[in-house]
Amino acid sequence: MLIYPHFLDYVTGLKYTVMDEKLPYEFKLSPETFHVLEVVDLERAGFDKEKGEYAVLRLWKKDVEMLKAVEIVSRRTNVPRSNIYFYGMKDKNAFTVSHLFIRSQLLERECLPLVMDNIRVELIGFIRTRPKRAYFKGNKFRVFIDADTGNKTRLLSLLGEMVRAISQMGLPAYYGYQRFGWKRYNSHVLGKYILLGREDLFAEEFLKSHYPREDYECALKRYLGVYEHLIYENTYRKMPLDRGFKEINAKVNNMFLDAYSSFLFNMLLNTLIEKSGLGSLDTELPMPGCIDGLRYYEPILRVENVEPRLLSKLKCFYRTGLFRPVDNVIRDDHDRVIYEFFLEPGMYATVILRELFKDGLVLEAG
To answer: Does domain 35-137 correspond to CATH entry 1.10.10.10?
Structure first.
């Protein structure tokens, strides 16, 4: 095992890898190298091409954050953001295909399709019920690795060995980097301040803090206190002081509190590995908001200086501590190698990429 092979591991709680080996390549995550296809059981939801209670929209996007894409769809269709449903965040630095759901009576069909530079939205049909979590089956991923002819044989062999090892041993079910942010990796810090009720600290971090991977223009705007083109910061600045940080958290789908909960879970995985080994993760573990989770998280909370009673404000559900990619396929495609795999909901492909490339995984700051 290695510890903290990637620089973002230190701030997000991803500590351990399963293998010491890594692919001898630098892999830059981008829409050209990383594709994500959301898999939803529409038939189970009563899919019909002509009618139904909810319209099903297919969303293609690249280089666009999920919440920004939803905001664009909201404006173009005149449907309130709160009436657009979707299954989780999809990576900005990827080409992604996913689904949006809107109550049929709210949608004017003539608004579709929407075609922009990095976004396309089409109406593909309808379902008879509100989209349920059970309909979401997971995501299929496709990774494109550039390889010259001389090294391809070695790459195919090593990649095959590593994928077999991952499939056999499993990986810690860490929450991935995008949960916390790649440019401003502080979503969990903001969530902690919300949990503590410290709006003073939240405001300082949200409006003024600077990070080395942040866009220069955004950093300059924070320094100057000019927020007009920083959507969420500008919205927060106009809110009443006593409830601003709670309202902005709601506006981003509880992202900040969820990120802090995810950070605590990552820390729990590290604690269990250190105490009982990787095999101890092969079970369902409570998230911090669960009553029976207190015994797991108390030592972590002492380090975090957070009172246990505050965990009741976080969501309760159970998450496996160990995961494995399935339907693994490795293909030789001319001057590149393609690796395809499928993950159940809530599991992060970046955790697999981290295991494969270690410090060679490059997450674009832009």
So the answer is: no
